[in-house]
Batch of 2 targets.
Target 1
Amino acid sequence: MQAVADIQESTVAFKSVALSRNMAGPDNQHVTMRGFSANRRKNDEMKKMAEFIRAVADREDRDAFRQLFAFYAPRLKAFLIKNGATPGDAEEVMQEAMTLVWRKAKQFDPAKASASTWIYTIARNRRIDLIRRAKRPELDPEDPFFTSVSEQPDGEQEYSRTERETLVRKYLETLPADQLQVVQKAFYEEMTHQEIAAELDMPLGTVKSRIRIAMRRLRDQLDRAEL
Amino acid sequence: MITHHPSDEYLVEYAAGSLPEAESLVVASHLSMCGECRARVETFESIGAVLLEDGETEAVSANALDTVMGMIAATKPVEASRRIEFNQSTLRLIPPPLRAYLDADLDNLNWKRAGRGIQEASLKQDEGVRISLLRIRPDQKVPSHTHTGEEYTLILDGGYKDGFAHYAQGDVSHVDGSVDHAPVADPHGPCLCLTVRTGPAQLTGKIGRILNPFIRG
């Protein structure tokens, strides 16, 4: 926990990753304290989202689901449109994804994923099924295959999944603009590295190495926070 | 001990949902066997989560919540009923994401001879991408070849070495057209692997060159 606070305090400037189009512009610079309290607020908010999912799982709590819907449905729709879906398709995938949130609520395990990560993966898989009409080879974390073959599950978690998300957010804020750009295109616009290279008119190798460097630094930072 | 993992670029594309089906199958199957890569993918998925949380919003249709509540009430959760009951050795060797591609137990697949001591069962073929299982006899040498496209291999059982490295259960190998390799299966048992190929293999050995015109990878 101390390490988490250290990382937060050591960050000099807070750049919003709110994905306004010119994300790395100087307009998005905030002072540290604002970033710090914003992250704390976000953290609390996300813990509440996890509790709402549990409430749906435990007692089919409609009010809790309404809260989830109010937060995630408009974000999912916007995200899917960014991914390239038409507004109509985005609405459909969002509705299906939210239906699955209700139905799969019992499978939600806060030790494995934060509320947002869990919902993100549900929507991502639904999008692939419905829009790309492709099959999505999916993991079944309940399957005993996991424990029998894998040498080591995930190890002990020194920090919760929600806290990890805070670290990831923090990290994205410090990412150089050129790396942030390819990471955003990869996730936000669901582009393959090949497509990113074509759009930005740069060699595929450059895109790949930017992604690689960005991900290695992210992993290093998380490892350090875990110590 | 897994030593050859998919690189971060593939794991990122998998996490973002842009990796094509066949490559996703290799990655997902590897993830079933590798806690380390699973943790990486979870980290990369939380990038998607952060972008979702911090992203813009788009007004949903006026009756969206009612529609969703209606869908929840209407559909009883139906479990996939036509699941094949696989036998133990199939369940032991085939990771869950790959099982959907099998229409029978391992031994009852449509194995075809693909060279001396090598059998191939084709699982899917689509737009020039072939997903297959390969079974290689112990100690068997696979003729030296290069690839016109890319070849991804995941070792499900046994192992092999090529001139570059040794690959064991859970390891992933990715070679493109530039690599000329001649894998040799380990001596202690047959090697079973999942392969995804985006182009036919080209034999490069002496005999290979003569056979080449007749071989479709």
Target 2
Amino acid sequence: MNKVQLENYRSMALRVREHIVRMSQGGGCFIGASLSCVELMVYTYGEVIRKDRAGLDRDYLFLSKGHDVPALYGTLVETGVLEASRLGNHLSTNDSIYWHPNRNIPGVEFHSGSLGHLPSVAAGVALDCKLRGGDNRVVVITGDGELNEGSVWETILVANAYKLDNLVIVVDRNQFQANIRTEELVPLEPLEDKFIAFGCAVRRVDGHDFMQLEWAYGELSAEGKVGVIIADTVRGRGLPSIEARADRWFCAFSEAEVGQLLEELHGNVKALIESETLVVR
Amino acid sequence: MTYEELLTETALNDERYIVMTAENRALVRNMPRTLGERFVDTGITEQTMVGMAAGLALRGRIPVIHALAPFLTMRAFEFIRTDVGIANLPVKLSGYIPGFLSDGNGPTHQSIEDVSILRGIPGMEVYCPADEDDLVKMLPAVWASPAPAYVRINHKKGAYTHAPYVTGKAEVIAEGSDITLLVYGFLFDNALAARELLEKQGLSVGLINMRSLKPVDAEAILRAASASKRLVTIEDHLKTGGLYSIVAEVLLQHRLTADVQSLSLEERWFKPGLLNQVLETEGFTPEKMKNKIMTYAQ
């Protein structure tokens, strides 16, 4: 990746974060978990998923944690797949843009929301790509709290049994379950060791660093193994006032607060949010 | 023709078919050899198998997936409902040893709520063959349909030669003015014999093999309700949510009421044992069913 590309991705990430912040108004969204995976989403959709492929030859991006979908919607807008005006329909029953992904939106391969499902769906897709002799890439982004679900690990065992090395699981390691730090509830570390023990090829990187993401994807061509990228991230990344805070999971902000947050995003001012925004969904 | 022969022939003729199992190979023993890489055994992982089946179906495949009925329908229920149901994908579920067919396994293996929970998934079809002949007659239509479907597998050799399968239609074996027995699945043979016993008592008794519980042949139920004084639903399933409930729903939708007797399992799991003893203990031999029906009549 050259400097120009890097700058392009960085500025795209900033615009995606703006979309996410705007979607947190009027009904809210899972802002923290969306902001943490912006670079993952932008890099994966922008670079890993090849746009010149269609139909059965295409590459697949699955969102398994699901509540990170504002990051994908922002990315789809910035890559011209989704009309920007549709984000204004967030939570309108006249459109299909709500808190979790669904296939009515172009660029969304499958619905999710119930955790621990899409590793298996993605494994089915990856298996079919293998059966047809295709070189498709299949990427599934999971949360870290989502790794509590046994079905994730079950699927990894099966996917490695079938040598699905066309499958990459990207863990958005933002350190938080919904309401509490993972390590305070059901500790996941040492996480690389767990994936390695399950037969995966693992790389661990700073999930906000495009160069490191590029390196990690490039490394994962290990023959016969499911690839795993553990992307260390910060929940709420880009908004210091809400970063890594347990009470900033699902947030519904006022218009004035969103105005402040957009300023904060551009580094102009630190927002002072006093409203109780945490709504347990 | 057996289930395996039919599935092998179907899959060999159509590349879209993928045969999967969560390490329950009873029905598909020879298929690793005959089907090669389109036979996928995921190990003891019902959830992963269903999720992968959804992924395969997204790519245009028709996965026919196998596991014991209770683990397929309950362990993986949310995957069926969420990944197959919401997406309305043509995944075909074959549930092995449903109902009394789990004989000596015990309550862990008793699939006696499968009809109830599977028919609650929008778009999901539910099929309950009476025996192997009925099974292989309905499966081509079941698999060819674009809908997700659950088949309560029953490949017991039966004595009865069934009529050709017509989608969504029940098989009317006999009509009767006193009583009509409505039955599905494994209990068909005993219902057939019970009907003979009842006829010997001088009653005019009809018999309907339901075949498909969703879609259900409402017309057949309504016709029986108007032709007979009483309906008897017979099922190796909990009373809640199965055929008795379906008949009640159909009648109510048509603003009708009827005298309906239910021979089913009420709020409990059945006593495990050899199949014949189970039928004896639970009162589902032809003689015992006849007696229950006669007692009710008095």
